[in-house]
Amino acid sequence: MTMRFPIVLFLSLLFVVSYGQKISPNKKAVMQSIDARASEMTNVSDKIWSFAETAFNESQSAKVLADYAEANGFKVDRGVAEMPTAFVATYGSGSPVIGILGEFDALPGLSQKAKPTKDPVVNGDPGHGCGHNLFGTASLSAAIAIKQLIEQGKIKGTIKFFGTPAEEKFFGKLWMVRAGLFNDLDVCMDWHPGAETRPAVQPGLALVDFTVEFTGQAAHAAADPWNGRSASDALELYTTGINYLREHIKPTVRIHYHIQDGGQVVNVVPDYSRLWVRVRDSSREGMVTVYDRVKKMAEGAAIMASVEYKISLVSGIYEVLVNRSGGSLLQKNLEILGPITYTDDEIAFAKKIQESTGKPQEGLYTKIEPMQETMKESGGGSTDVGDVSWVVPTIRLSAATAPIGTPWHSWAVVACGGMSIGHKGMFTASKTLAMTMVDLYEDPKKIDAVKTEFKERKGGHVYKALIPEGPPPLEKK
Ligand SMILES: [Zn+2]
User: Fold this and answer.
1) Which of 82, 117, 433, 466 could join 142 in a cystine, given CB atoms 3.0 to 4.6 angstroms apart?
2) pLDDT of residue 477
3) Distance 428 CA to ligand 1 centre (A)
C-alpha cells in the first residue's frame, strides 16, 4: 500500500491530455484497449451493417457479437428470456456489477450503400437506419476493455454485456426485464447513435403498441352490398375518430397508426381489417389516459359499422428515468476525450448527405457543450431502455454517427453507419462508456450517488411491464 500510492500518483500526473484534465491509468488503459481493437470493431460493425437483420431475425448479428464476447473470455448465455437472439455475456465476480446494453437490429426498407446519395444495395431490403450496428459493437468493446482491467486485477467486480434484440419493433428488453436479467446490476450503461455527442439526459416518450381488428360480413360490393358489413368502413371511421381526437390531446401526445389490412379487392365488401396503433406521451401515466380513450373509440367505430372488434396489446414502454449523476461522469470523460475530429473527405461526405436530404450544409457536430438541462416534457423518440431505467439506474450517452440534422430512420443514417463517420462515433461512445465505468469501479461513492438519484426520481412508483402474458412475439420475415 505504502509503495503503490506514490507510483499511482506519479502515473496519474503523467497522463495529462490536451484538455488539461488528469487521466487515471485505468482510463488510459481502456482508451488504449479500444484503440487497439479499432479494426476488429470496424469489422464487427460492418458485418452487422451488411446483415441488416430486422427485429427477432438478428441471428447472424447476435452471433457475431456473442462469438466476439466469447473469444474475449466472457461466459455467454445465448437465447435468454425466450428470445433466440438475446444473450448475456459475463466476466468477473462479486460487486459492483455493471451492465452495458447493446442493440443490433435494422429497419425495413432502408437498404443503402455507404454513399452520400440515395442508392440502395437492394431496393426494399432492410438497413441500419438507427445505427444499431455501431451500438452493439461499441458497447461490447467497452465491456471488453473493462474485462481486461478486472483480469489484470486493476479493478474488482463483474461486467455484463446485454445483447438486446428487437428494439425497433416489439422491444426485446421488456422480456429481458421480465426475466429478471437486470436485477443483480448496480448500474446499467447505454448509448445511442445520433447527430450530437453528449450525455443523454432527456426522458423521451412512453408508448404503447396495440392492434385493432374489425370483423364483418363479406358480400358482393355491387350485387348485394346490403348483405355486407364492412370491416374497412369500421377502420375508416376509427381512424377518422382518432384524427378528430388530435385536437383534444396535450401537445406531448403522439398517435400513429399503420393500416395492415384494409381489405383485398374492390368488388368485395371486406369482412376483415386490421391496424397497428401507437400512442405516446411524455409519461406512462399520460400515455395510459389516451390509450384508454383510443381503445374505447374502436368500440364506437364497430357499433357504427355493425362489425365486431378485437384489441390486442403488443407491448408498451416507459419513458426513460434519467440519471444526471451518471450523466455528469460521462460529461467529464467527454471533456477528457475532446470533440471528434473529421477529415476533409468526411466533412464533404456529410455536406453531400445534407444536400441530398435538403438540410443546411453545416457538416458535423464537433463540440463539447455543457450537459443539457433535463426537461420534464422533452419530446423525441422512445426506447425500451426506458423499462431498464426503471429497474436499475441507467446512464445514457448519445454519440454523433451522422451529420447535423440528418433525418433519423433514413437511408442517410445507414450510409454514415457503414463508413468512417459512423465508426468514429462508435469509438468515442465506446471510450466514453468504458472511462465512465472505470469511474464507477474505482469509486463506490459515485455508484452511491447514481443509486441515490435513481431512488429519488423513482419515488414510490412500482414498475409494471406492459406486455401480454406468454412468450415474446417472435415474428419471422
Ligand atoms: Zn435506435
Assistant:
1) 433
2) 52
3) 17
The CA 442 to ligand 1 mean position distance, Å, reads 30
Residues with CB under 5 A from ligand 1 (ion): 130
Predicted confidence (pLDDT) per residue in 254-263, tens digit: 999 999 999 9
Cα(123) to ligand 1 centroid in Å equals 22
- Please name which of 215, 222, 232, 197 lies closest in space to residue 366, comparing C-alpha atoms: 197
Compute the distance from residue 39 Cα to the ligand 1 centre, in Å.
Answer: 23
Instruction: Tell how far the Cα of 272 is from the centroid of ligand 1, in angstroms.
Output: 33
d(CA 303, CA 296): 11
What's the CA-to-centroid distance between 305 and ligand 1, angstroms?
39
Omega before residue 96 within 30° of 0, cis? yes
Task: Please answer whether residues 297 and 245 qualify as being in contact, where contact means their C-beta atoms are separated by less than 8 angstroms.
Answer: yes
In tens, the pLDDT along 108-138 reads 999 999 999 999 999 999 999 999 999 999 9
Rounded to the nearest angstrom, the distance between the alpha carbon of 218 and the centre of ligand 1 is 41
For residue 237, give the 3-state DSSP assignment: helix
DSSP 62-119: HHHHHHHHHHTT-EEEESGGG-TT-EEEEEE-SS-EEEEEE---BBTT----SSSS--
Q: Which of 267, 78, 54, 252 is nearest to 161 (CA)?
A: 78
Distance CA 161, CA 109 (A): 29
Q: State CA 365 to chain mean position distance.
A: 21
Nearest to 398 by CA among 416, 371, 363: 371
Closest CA to 100 of 137, 143, 61: 143
Q: CA 63 to CA 207: how far, in whole Å?
A: 30
Q: Which residues contact 460 (CB under 8 A, 6 or more apart)?
A: none
Q: Are 159 and 33 in contact (CB under 8 A)?
A: no
d(CA 454, ligand 1 centre) in Å: 23
**Grid coordinates of 179:** 426475466
Supply the DSSP string of 39-57, one letter for each residue. Answer: HHHHHHHHHHHHH--BTT-
Cell numbers at 438, concatenated: 472505470
